[in-house]
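User: Teach me something about this protein's shape.
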Amino acid sequence: MKKTWKPWLAAGLLSLAGAAQAAGYPERPLHLLVGFPAGGASDVAARAMAAKMETLLGQPVVVENKPGAASNIASDAVAKARPDGYTLLFGTISLSINGSLYKSLPYDPVRDLTPVSQLSSAPFLLVVNPKSPIHSVADLIDTAKHAQKGHEPDYATAGNGSGSHLFMELFCARAGIQLSHVPYRGAAPAMADVLGGQVPLTFDNIITTLPLIKSGKLRALAVSSAQRSPAAPDIPSLAELGVKDYDATSWFGLFVPAGTPPDIIGKLGKVAVQAVNTPEVSATLRKVGAEPVGSTPQQFAAFFKEEVDKWAEVVQRAHVQID
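Assistant: First, the predicted structure itself:
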């Protein structure tokens, strides 16, 4: 008797196999890869998440630091890992930018990785040296619009393609102005020159800038998120100050290799949300300037797509590319 291939039957068997695999998951230790060195904000947050997920999953969650190339080394390793739920990526906003920023990557962030849960969100603050004549966002926009070409206000950043650079480029695009970019080799030297008055303006992470604002060493103009930050409720958002559609935050999120069974993604998503909402993890996130989020895989997938599209537009406008 001739055998007939039945695609619907094959799909059903694969679905049953995935469900069976998820039912016993996890059966061995998981590995959580971090694309930045030990001791940094992402590493501290990842280790807090791993400790809580380990308790909830009943298996060790081993944190592995694979720093380098703006987290591309770790991201590539996860993208090429077996899609069985045992290799996870502690991703950051760089994952939504690198596909546009780098001329060539050994992996595709959208095609090769699947979002599991957005873990946190952290705004940047737009700040100026207190001796600057710029006292508000309106002052900055007015100064830029009336400046002669080539004499627009300078702003310092951690380097080409950095968060401070792209956040400011998004601001320029939304406000319809031009500013003069002064790139540095890292956030620390950029901030040093803003504090010293050599460059008047920068965007930087809220955890870095708040103590300097409170001590009077910086003047805050606005927060980058769509709404005010719970960490700095007195600082208005750019959106409420009239910069239409401005919303930019740094974030942490959990990813797995594409092709990971949906049931495993669902389980990891639920565990991630549980972990984020514990007092221990929430407190750790806030200590590094991040507000806990905890989203479903579907919500994070939609957010990640919006982020990829938004930053691709900004990178193109800024004509930034890294080999």
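Now, about its shape. Residues 35 and 148 are 42 Å apart (CA to CA). The longest helix spans residues 297-318. If you'd like, I can walk through any region in more detail.
User: That's plenty for now, thanks!
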